[in-house]
Amino acid sequence: MLNKVMVIGNLGADPEARYTANGTMVCEFRVAANENFTDRAGQRQSRTEWFRVIAYQRLAEICSQYLQKGRQVYVEGRLQTRSWDGQDGQKHYVTELIANTVQFLGGQGGAGGGGERTESFDPGMPVGADGGGDIDPDDLPF
């Protein structure tokens, strides 16, 4: 079975960091991925898909420190759906993208300012390992 998601988009708000009861850092942020297409009538259309992204431990620390609203990111991870019973007695569901890798794309704030430099963190890499470099479209996984 394969559960892998890759998203490039912009943060819709500043990330929110918190700690679980056992002391694990969790960082949550929303990413908007835009899709442009032409409909059957020949009109250009745009659609935005929002992803709720959750990062844990060291990746959460880095995301909470460096990400901000508007910043463009590449996120790779897996989808996970949680459910709970609300105070209204209804069952509620949320699907989240659990991040394994986050690359910071573009300049600060996603406005294109600054250099087109990437910063990344993959929990499988030792902290301080070089994950940056200039973005080459041929290096993107799609």
Can you give a write-up of this model?
The chain has 142 residues and is mainly beta. The chain has one domain: Nucleic acid-binding proteins (OB fold (Dihydrolipoamide Acetyltransferase, E2P)), CATH 2.40.50.140. Helix content is 7%, strand content 52%. The chain is built from one helix and eight strands, in the order ββββαββββ. A five-stranded mixed barrel has the order 1-3-4-6-5. A hairpin with a 5-residue loop joins strand 5 and strand 6 (91-105). The radius of gyration is 17 Å and the shape is globular. The two termini are 20 Å apart. Residues 110-120 and 123-142 have low confidence and may be disordered.
Structural domains: how many: 1
Strand content: over 45%
CATH class type:
Mainly Beta
Ends distance? 20 Å
**Could you give the order of strands across the largest sheet?**
1-3-4-6-5
Unreliable spans are: 110-120, 123-142
- CATH fold-level assignment: OB fold (Dihydrolipoamide Acetyltransferase, E2P)
Return the string of H and E elements: EEEEHEEEE
Average pLDDT number: 82
Mind summarizing the main beta sheet?
5 strands, mixed, barrel
Global geometry: globular
CATH superfamily: Nucleic acid-binding proteins
Radius of gyration: 17 Å
* Tally of strands: 8
Second rung of CATH, namely the architecture: Beta Barrel
Residues in helix, %: under 10%
Alpha-beta classification = mainly beta
